[in-house]
Amino acid sequence: MAAIFRTLLLLLTLSESFIGVFTIGVGVNYGRIANNLPPPSQVSTLLRSLNITRVKVYDADPQVLQAFAGTNIEFIIGLGNEYLQRMRDPQQAQTWIQQNVQPYLSQTKITCINVGNEVLGGQDTQLASYLLPAMKTMYGALVNLGLSKQVYITTAHSLQILATSFPPSQGTFQENLIQYIQPILNFHAQVDSPFFINAYPYFAYKGDPNNVPLEYVLFEPNSGSIDPHTNLKYDNMLYAQIDAVYSAIKALGHTDIEVKISETGWPSKGDENEAGATVQNAGIYNRNLMQRMQQGESTPARPSQPIDIYVFALFNENQKGGPTSERNFGLYYPDGSLVYNLGVKSYILPRIDYSSSMKNGLSILSHLVLLMGSLVYFLER
Question: If the chain, 381 residues long, is cut into consecutive pieces of 10 residues, what is the mean pLDDT of each piece?
Fold first, then answer.
């Protein structure tokens, strides 16, 4: 009996170790540029079974928002770049929120509107000029509707907005973008909203695989790098990128804005010229990232600031353009099977509706299956 108890205790510990990572500092991006994905109702059940409590989407699709009603999963919804010009009009901004946010708030936990995605740094300077006015009018509409304490406004940037990223203490923004970034930072400070950045160490490795150590970008044991200005040691590139963004923000006079990683991930497949895009590397990156987030790590320069990350992405998306890697960032294939081992098993994905007695959590049998899956994973390592 004692042996059985010890085994069950081990299983429970392993289960909490691997499933718990999704509830500590890790959310997931639910992209849907594909024609073969499961319906939102099944995705909702999947995410609840994995204890994922935070999700970021790129629009405000009512089918998705309705599917997550009553789940208590926190949602970041997106306002596409194509809306920025018209959202400068306060009346249109308020109408959009009244149609796409307000009707769902009583059941679906919408906490943020991400206004535009990677607008700065592109070729469209006209679009860049629309960004902050749209953010301001969207925030003003939230104030008018009494929702500004419940829903915050931000926008997600590509790491390409940085001119310098190493050493991290010398991080700076591109000079030609400061005219846009400075007032955006002022806005964040005024309304107390975070600065979103999409950071992918994969792209640094892909661009220079001969000089960027693979272990450094995958969170694997390595000699690391030292910032000569602070003497701080970095054992992975993502933390260095985060601190570089903080330094760039500080250089513009702000120390009161939190940086959140709105996207990070690693592709499991790529073209011949896409170095490092393999199933093995993708699994290593995301497993190591999630384990570090579970440990509550902070960056070297911000030891008291928890890291907040959204992994990209939940599914492979077969209709995305660009190189092969763009269609292969998913943790899951559209059929519900895992692309690589994350410490959970694909067969915990529900394929049928739960009965009313099961809607508030996994059944005892599901728990046992999950625990056994974790044990199998542990033994296979």
Answer: 38 40 73 97 91 95 96 96 97 98 96 98 90 98 97 98 97 97 98 98 97 98 97 98 98 97 98 97 96 93 95 97 98 93 58 37 39 42 45
Structural tokens at position 372: 């056994």
Nearest CA to 77 among 89, 88, 63, 90?
63
pLDDT at 336: 87
Tell me the one-letter amino acid at 166. Answer: F
Active-site residue, selected from the candidate residues 74, 82, 175, 263 = 263
pLDDT at 25: 57
The pLDDT of residue 90: 97
Q: Which two tokens stand for residue 380?
A: 């296979």
Active site residue 220: no
> Strand runs (DSSP E) across the chain, as ranges?
26-29, 54-56, 74-79, 109-117, 152-158, 162-164, 172-173, 195-198, 225-226, 233-234, 259-264, 309-312
Output the six-digit token pair for 225: 């790098």
**Token match 């304490």: residue?**
149
Question: Residue 242: which H helix or E strand, with range?
Answer: helix 237-251
Based on its alpha-carbon atoms, the radius of gyration of the chain, rounded to whole angstroms, reads 21
* Marked catalytic residue, from 16, 74, 118, 326: 118
Q: Could you list the beta-strand ranges (E) of 118-208.
A: 152-158, 162-164, 172-173, 195-198
Is 263 catalytic? The answer is: yes
Sequence-ordered list of residues with C-beta below 8 angstroms from that of 295, at least 6 positions apart, any chain: none
Report residue 293 as tokens.
């987030």
pLDDT value for 256: 92
**Cα–Cα dist 228/288, whole Å:** 26
pTM of the model: 0.86
Question: Tokens at residue 339, please?
Answer: 């692309």
Distance CA 124, CA 112 (A): 25
Reply yes or no: is the peptide bond before residue 90 cis, omega within 30 of 0: no
Position 365 scores a pLDDT of 36
pLDDT for 368: 40
In order of 36, 265, 269, 270, the CA distances from 322 in angstroms are: 19, 17, 13, 11
Q: Which of 189, 181, 114, 184 is nearest to 153 (CA)?
A: 114
Q: Which of 181, 288, 304 is nearest to 238 (CA)?
A: 288
